[in-house]
Amino acid sequence: MRTRPDKTTEMELPSGKVTLDGHGYLVDPELWTKDFARAVAKAEDIELTQNHWDVIEFMRQSYADHGVAVDVRHVNKFLGEKNGISKHDGRRLLFELFPYGYVKQAVKMAGMKQPRAWSTG
Questions:
Q1: How far apart are CA 61 and CA 70, in angstroms?
Q2: Which of 36, 38, 102, 119 registers the highest number of CB atoms within 10 A of its CB?
Q3: Domain count along the chain
Q4: What integer is the mean pLDDT of 74-84?
Q5: How far is C-alpha 90 from the geometric centre of its chain's CA atoms?
């Protein structure tokens, strides 16, 4: 548990302003846009490919269906099935796409709230 409240900032995007927590995650995942994903990717020095967008769209759809960010193991499975590779190789691909980790990059780009405690897969 955090001992002090998060500081928030605002980010101006072509699609409008969004509020970020102190670590750069969206405060309200409902305000996510592709502009936000592009801005985070640029800050993380990632050039978004179709595989990146597939992961982000899978995560967004899962959030819409279940109301929580999808666990990394489901993303690994998704990547494996989508690319005709094993779940283990899906995990490897995920870390090629998001080299600093699922939570730090993929979860942030997909507009999920920062998890309080979560395995990075």
A1: 9
A2: 102
A3: 1
A4: 96
A5: 16
Helix (H) or strand (E) holding 20: strand 16-20
Residue count of the chain, please give it.
Answer: 121
Residue 22 within any structural domain of the chain: yes
What backbone phi and psi angles, to 5 degrees, belong to 73? -65, -30
Q: Is 120 among the domain residues?
A: no
What is the pTM (predicted TM-score) of this model? 0.89
Decide if 60 is inside a domain.
Answer: yes
Is residue 5 a contact partner of residue 87, using CB atoms and an 8 Å limit? no
Q: Which tokens sit at 41?
A: 């990717």
Please give the mean pLDDT across all residues of the chain. 91
The answer to whether residues 109 and 40 touch, using CB atoms and an 8 Å cutoff, is yes
Position 6 scores a pLDDT of: 67
Phi, psi of 27 (to 5 degrees): -75, -40
Tokens 């929580």 correspond to 68
Q: What residues make up the domain containing 98? A: 9-109
Domain contains 2 = no
What's at 9, amino acid-wise? T
